[in-house]
Amino acid sequence: MKSKKNTLWLVVSVFLVALMVLSACAPAAVPTPEKVVVTSMVEKQATVVVKETVIVPQTVVAPAAATGPTCGTDPVVLNAYFETGFDIPFKLADEFTKQFPNVTWNISQDQFANLINSAPRLLSGDNPPDLLRLPTMVSFAKDGLLMNLDSYATLFGWDKWPVPQLAQNRIAPDGTRGSGALYAMGLNYSLTGIFYNKKLAAQIGMTEPPKTVAEFEDLLAKAKAAGLLPIMEWGSAKSGMGLAFPLQNLMAAYGPVGPINDWIFQKKGATIDTPNNLIAAQHLEQWIKNGYFPPDINAIEYTDAASRFTKGEGVFTFNGDWQNTAYDTGMPGNVGFFLMPPAEAGGSPAAMSAPLTYGIAANAKHADCAAFFFNWVATNDTARQINVTIGGSNPGGPADATMPTVTAGSVTNETLAAGPVVGKAGNSMDFIANATSSIFAQGWTPELQKMVGGKQDAAGLLKAVQAEYLRELAQ
Amino acid sequence: MALAVSQQTRLSKRVRRETFVGWLFVLPALLMYAVFVLVPLLLTILYSLYRWDGVGPATWVGLKNYVTIFEVPDLIGTIVNAFWLVVFFSFIPVGLGLVVASVIHRVATGRLGAIARTVLFLPQVIPLVAAGIIWGWLLALPGLINQILKAVGLGAITRAWLGDFDWALPAVGLVGIWVLLGFCIVLLLTGMTKVDPALYESARIDGAGWFREFVAITVPLLRYEIGVCLTVTVIAALAAFDIVYVSTAGGPGNATSVPGIQIYVLAFTQRAVGLACALAVMLMALVVIVILPIQWLSREGAR
């Protein structure tokens, strides 16, 4: 009896061992993306954007009649590839079908980090998407995988929209962004800045948003002295380093945004290692040394930082308006927003802002219908309302489009009001993490983590990132 | 004479037919192996000689990608980290596994032994991604491990283990030990059941204690199993990807960055397919160089 049991155990264990050997060998091959935990933050950062000035007339103006192509009346199945974790495109797709019943959707979805990896394959495949959430675009456009949207822009009148909306989606023949042919559209335009916990802010005597960096730093010192965490931020490599937010805001406070955008858009000779940026990086380094960020920031992921801030840890946090709904739900009435103040009183504030970028594959079957969808998202009142309510971001569109209503007391009111301020000043920037597809993973994140660990200083940070940038451009 | 010849031809015919049938059986597996292992392997070597973004035109660059690996400190640093991981993923699980397995084998053969085996083997069954998330919570600053340290008066050493430059790699190593220990124990235990109990009995009659038995009988007779354990775990360490990716993704800085992570980022995020392939080829060569001596030593011992 006993020996039978032993034999059985032997057989089972041999089988298990065989199984283990097999599975243990598997990782020796190329890592499988399926196993990868997706980093929600990278995507956030890529989405970081600010919006352009959209003037907010209260008079309802009928959306400009589309003169471009439509989806027709025959049944159309749009082949779409969306980003997991964001409701907006799905809600917009539902509403679109409601209004145009001949259009149905075949929607696939993936996490942002996986989209970066699979986009080239999808775009060059046999069944290219009519609509695709674009993680990056320059290399795809260079490879001829993306449709040039210039003719649609003319037909629908997109080129008459307030200029900065489309600029980030334009690519020049030399591969620099900011001007040239249009290769993508934004479903909305997000804005970043500083969110604050109203109760804690009152506790340290903040009665109105700071007007200069010095005033802001004074508040940070007060928070620290009061035993509060001044700034909640994330920094794990799994999410990507959140300190890139305050750093870029400081850069814009101490220097013009032009050179920063040039660097992001890969203009020839652009460098991030400038005297102004050095001052900005030195301020950040000082903030770190003063203990203004959580001591465990290098291990904090994006979602943890958001939830810890919601639970009352941290007076301030640098983030974007995509987080509005979660903040409003988690800390109703207790969350406020202001733009990063300028260095000098009376200067104009700057902000990172970027479109929620979608493109059409060069060989898409229903490009006309997809382009019509872009136009509808920006001009249809219901679509714009969905954009603001679900996403918390500005829907952009024509200068005379109606601005949707927002629930009173929502922080979305404050972010929407801040948009035009930045737009008017012409101080909107794309995100420094979007300069190349891996500058965030290979440059900003490790170098800023080193700064937190006391292994990198302000000057070294900028030099190291610039070296990585040049190395990637040379490839 | 004639009979003998015809018998021989018949025999060799049969052998030949058997060989043919044998090959027929192996063919499907061989085909899969060729298509999914050999072809990608050769393609990887080929790609490593080009500069290529994965879609557009590729440019021949010769060995330049390999030179780049040696020029960029962050890339060569990943290989140093991988060797540190060998300590945690291989040496400690195999060493500890030997001790634990021999204890289980000697004192806990009944239900207790089965429970111990099951508990220690569980990490192999839990999906690694889920395990990575749980370990992330445990090792976080407000996590359970730091709470326990505080409770026993060690509050001074609490830290965000996965975010600390000096401790992130050992913390990742701890996860690796947790995952791989059960595998080693089960494999070594199986080996121990093979050892003739008479050897242990005679040793005991001669007055040998647990340690003497362990050194004189268990370890030498398990040389082959130990070789397998070392091979599998050293490969797991050098080619590590999943454990590192789910716990730190290579951070902080590049403190836990290993070749597997860099290959992934280079190929899929940076789209430097040639450079990624060059690093992959180097990693493969490294694994072979490290594994071959282990194989030779354990085979010789087994014979």
Second CATH tier, the architecture of the largest domain in chain A: 3-Layer(aba) Sandwich
Helix content of chain A: 40-55%
Structural class of chain B: mainly alpha
Name the overall outline of chain B.
flat
CATH topology of the largest domain in chain A: D-Maltodextrin-Binding Protein, domain 2
SS summary, helix count of chain B: 13
In brief, what are we looking at here?
The complex is a heterodimer of chains A (475) and B (303). Chain A is an alpha/beta fold and 475 residues long.
Report on this structure.
The complex is a heterodimer of chains A (475) and B (303). In chain A, the strands form two sheets. In chain A, strands 1, 2, 3, 6, 7, 8, 9 and 10 form an eight-stranded mixed sheet that branches. Mean pLDDT of chain A is 84; it is low at 1-66. With 475 residues, chain A is α/β, with parallel strands linked by helices. The relative contact order of chain A is 0.18. Chain A has helices at 2-25, 40-47, 88-99, 112-124, 138-142, 150-156, 164-167, 198-203, 213-225, 244-254, 257-264, 275-289, 302-310, 324-330, 367-379, 381-391, 411-425, 439-452, 458-474; strands spanning 76-83, 103-110, 131-133, 170-171, 181-182, 185-197, 316-320, 335-338, 351-359, 428-429. Chain A has 19 helices and ten strands. Chain A folds into two domains: 76-190 and 354-418, D-Maltodextrin-Binding Protein, domain 2, CATH 3.40.190; 192-351 and 431-474, D-Maltodextrin-Binding Protein, domain 2 (3-Layer(aba) Sandwich), CATH 3.40.190. In chain A, 45% of the residues lie in helices and 12% in strands. In chain A, helix 10 (244-254) packs across helix 12. Chain B has one domain (77-302): MetI-like fold (Orthogonal Bundle), CATH 1.10.3720.10. Chain B has helices at 2-47, 64-71, 73-107, 111-125, 128-139, 144-151, 168-194, 197-205, 210-221, 223-238, 242-247, 259-269, 273-302, and strands spanning 50-51, 59-60. In chain B, helix 3 crosses helix 9 (210-221), helix 4 packs across helix 7 and helix 7 runs antiparallel to helix 10 (223-238). Chain B is mainly alpha-helical and 303 residues long. A two-stranded antiparallel sheet of chain B has the order 1-2. Chain B is built from 13 helices and two strands. Chain B is flat, with a radius of gyration of 25 Å. Classes of the chains: A alpha/beta (475), B mainly alpha (303). At the A-B interface, helix 1, helix 4 and helix 18 of A face helix 5, helix 7, helix 10, helix 11 and helix 12 of B.
